[in-house]
Write a structure and sequence with these properties.
Prot_kinase_dom, elongated, 41% helix, single chain, mainly alpha, Kinase-like_dom_sf, transferase, 2 strands, two-stranded antiparallel ribbon
């Protein structure tokens, strides 16, 4: 549907006007559907592409001379009636029209441009976007953003609530989102586009106050545990070990310590596989469950 819509938009740009601009009322839907059916029947009978049919209907066949053959071919590919024969977006990118737009040189140092792990200390935020002040030796800033976000949710953070607080998510009654027409194939017509689905480059800073509060008494050495110790989990109290796993998985400090230990062990895999197995017998933090199980099953 997106490829077909692109073809219609390009056709309107070539025409310099909207297609069937006189049919704008809700009562004109029947006529629009009739014209669409005529497009399908014309293509089936004569094999004529809808692009040429629309130009002839608007008396603008001469505009074919004003566009390049590559652009005409591209629009005709988009307006292919049969879905199975219509090119998908990946195939359209390889069209002759974009031959001169393709990148020929290789991007060097791509690892530096797109690092595998982003740390919160590397974020560039607006100066006045947050009232929190952090010291230069804040060890929490060295942790990956994915981990900090996980701890933030465990501490009670709700990203949807934050977005609603800043009026970036607005809900509407379901009756306002009902379509005017539902076709036999399941397609809907007359549904207003939800503005929430459009790109919004607003920046919302999530406060880490709760996370810092629950990790305030964690010793600095916990951020860089030594794996040569006999028991890396020596910090765990007997009370914490006796609690069910579901409770331990919701404890911010406990999950922080477990995540740090497992990340250090995973960095040394496969040489630390025995220690990973030993620690996994205690429990596995949900954040690293996929990587830990890959190590346990010896999947590389």
């Amino acid at each position: 549907a997106d490829v077909w819509s692109l073809g219609i938009v390009l056709t309107e740009l070539v025409l310099g006007e909207l297609i069937w601009s006189n049919l704008t009322k809700k009562s004109d839907i029947k006529q629009i559907l009739g014209k669409m059916l005529a497009l399908f029947m014309k293509e089936k009978e004569t094999g004529e592409n809808p692009f040429c049919f629309l130009l002839r209907e608007h008396g603008a066949v001469g505009k074919l001379e004003d566009i390049s053959p590559d652009l005409r071919s591209f629009i005709e590919c988009c307006l292919t009636i049969k879905h199975s024969k219509r090119k998908n977006p990946v195939e359209l990118v390889e069209h002759q029209l974009f031959l001169n737009c393709r990148r020929t040189e290789k991007v060097e140092d791509s690892i530096d441009i797109f690092p595998a792990v982003f740390r919160s200390g590397e974020l560039e935020l607006p100066v006045d976007s947050s009232k929190e002040t952090t010291s230069g030796d804040d060890l929490l800033q060295e942790r990956p953003i994915r981990e900090i976000y996980h701890l933030w949710t465990l501490a009670g953070g709700d990203v949807f609530a934050e977005l609603k607080k800043h009026d970036l998510i607005k809900t509407f009654p379901p009756v306002c989102n009902m379509p005017n027409v539902i076709l036999h194939g399941g397609d809907t017509l007359g549904v207003a586009k939800d503005r929430n689905l459009l790109l919004d480059d607003s920046v919302v800073c999530l406060s880490l106050e709760r996370v810092r509060e629950q990790l305030s008494h964690v010793e600095p050495t916990a951020y860089y545990p030594l794996l040569v110790e006999k028991d890396p989990c020596a910090f765990e109290s007997s009370e914490m070990k006796s609690l069910p796993v579901v409770i331990r998985e919701r404890d911010v400090e406990y999950q922080f310590r477990r995540i740090v230990i497992f990340q250090r062990l995973l960095e040394g895999y496969p040489y630390t596989r025995d220690k990973i197995i030993k620690e996994a017998r205690v429990d596995i933090p949900p954040l690293l469950r996929d990587k830990i199980w890959a190590a346990l099953l010896n999947v590389t």
